[in-house]
Amino acid sequence: MKIFIPFCLFFMTFFSLSAKTDGKDVLKELINNAHGGVEVHDVDGRQSYTGYVGTGYRFYLDDKKKLFIYPGIDFKWGEYRAEGGSFKSTSVAIPITVGYDLFNNDIIGMNLYGGVTFEQFFSVTDQKTDAEVNRSQAGLTGGTSIRLLNKISINASYYYGLTTLFNDGNGRTSSYNFSINF
């Protein structure tokens, strides 16, 4: 499995960094970063949609709490449509981003981030394609998050797939992602 190594790296990084913090803080941060959203995919000029829910943990890399790394996990479900057909899927994605808080106060905050996302399809159903689905995906992501009243944030990002959706080399994926954190 191509995605096995990134999964291992994610969990080793997460647990080695979280070991330096209080366990209650880890749970609180995971709850605070719970989110849900939708991806609008473009695969070979055809649009499709995926929903997702997930969480993550923000590790600050400086004393001013501006620069951070954010490993996360998203559980996804939806349908992909491409020139060669379509399929429904269930997957897990591991985004690992580095970001910078541009400003943050009690009323409003904003950050920019970018990084990589690894995704593993666990279930592929209703496949109406000739080619096999490439179950391991990887891509680059970049976006912004606006936090309001230190309670809710609205996120928008762009994903560019580095791998193709199908094993025959077709199905380059890109998507716009929109989510809300509570």
Put the structure in a nutshell.
This protein has one domain (4-181): Porin. The protein is 14% helix and 62% strand.
Report on the structure:
The protein is mostly beta strands and 182 residues long. The chain has one domain (4-181): Porin. The chain has two helices and nine strands. The chain has an eight-stranded antiparallel β-barrel with strand order 1-2-4-5-6-7-8-9. A hairpin with a 3-residue loop joins strand 5 (85-104) and strand 6 (108-125). It is elongated, with a radius of gyration of 17 Å. The model has no long low-confidence stretch (mean pLDDT 87).
Overall shape: it is: elongated
- The total beta strand count reads 9
The amount of helix comes to 10-25%
Q: Please mark out the parts with pLDDT under 50 across 5 or more consecutive residues, or reply none.
A: none
Tell me the Rg in angstroms: 17 Å
Ends: how far apart?
A: 34 Å
**Strand line-up in the sheet with most strands:** 1-2-4-5-6-7-8-9
The biggest sheet amounts to: 8 strands, antiparallel, barrel
Question: What does the average pLDDT come to?
Answer: 87
What topology emerges from the helices and strands here?
Blueprint: H1 4-18, H2 23-32, E1 35-43, E2 46-56, E3 59-60, E4 67-82, E5 85-104, E6 108-125, E7 136-148, E8 152-164, E9 172-181
Antiparallel strand pairs: 1-2, 1-9, 2-4, 3-4, 4-5, 5-6, 6-7, 7-8, 8-9
